[in-house]
Amino acid sequence: WVEWWSERFDNHINGLDPIGAYPMVPSARTESDDVEWVVYWGCIDYDEGEIESLAHARNTQTVLRVAANIESFVEKSRSKGYHVWVFPNRPVPALTMRRALLAAAQVVGAPMKEINPKQVSLPWDEDRKEWKLGNYVRLPYPGADITEFGNRNVLSDNDVWVSMGGFIEQAWDSRCTETALDEMGKRFVEPPKRQRRTAPGNIDMSKPWKKRLDGLSHTLLYGSKGRPGGPYEDQDRSSWLWKLANSMIERADLNEDEMLQALMVGHDTYCPDKFDNRAEAELERMLNKALDQHE
What is the pLDDT of residues 152-178, one digit of tens each? Predict the structure, then answer.
């Protein structure tokens, strides 16, 4: 494994095969009810455009430093966005890291959609007999052996590119404590639950929701001439469900309960094993996320 990983990192820094990492690490490799989930790093991904993302990243960095003595590192990502990285001096509970980063983003009024880790625990994959992986973040400095500076490099406080070696040294020397993350996390205030959206008053609620689907949503679910319903053969099922949710929000006169019903029909018809027995909860979370982005 050491040789395999060494080759992966070599390919990353010479630009041949950039890699990423999953933050969540279980305390046991086998299925267990009392498994603990820890992380070795946390990362916020701001992707709101060049200027706004950099402002969010710098504001977050300042709050972490001033409020809890936590050093963080701002990386320019692949597109018009920025990552804010935090490194503890030992593995910390995923919940501790997540709440600390949520608090920092909340204090500065920044988006809280892309806080990694995105989960505080992960389910067991019964088919593969292993824990599921969660969400993945691309690592900085791909191709560092070829060009010293560019996108996906870390910036200093005055927006000067930092070399890979310089970043590693600074990150190692300034790792934060779990206590500092705990203190930061105490500042997070759970937002009030959004009220369910009701259907407009001019809709005849006696008609089944299927009859009020817009054209795109209806095609996604039931197909049309020359196209069957459901995901395309090479389409990811989550992205298909996400597209269905957004099409209903943007075009269909449905309330949230009806949109959730439609998502459940899509799940049960085309991808019943996607979320197993957690389908309704996962689909409701997906729908709520889509609704939040449309507000």
Answer: 899 999 888 899 999 999 999 999 999
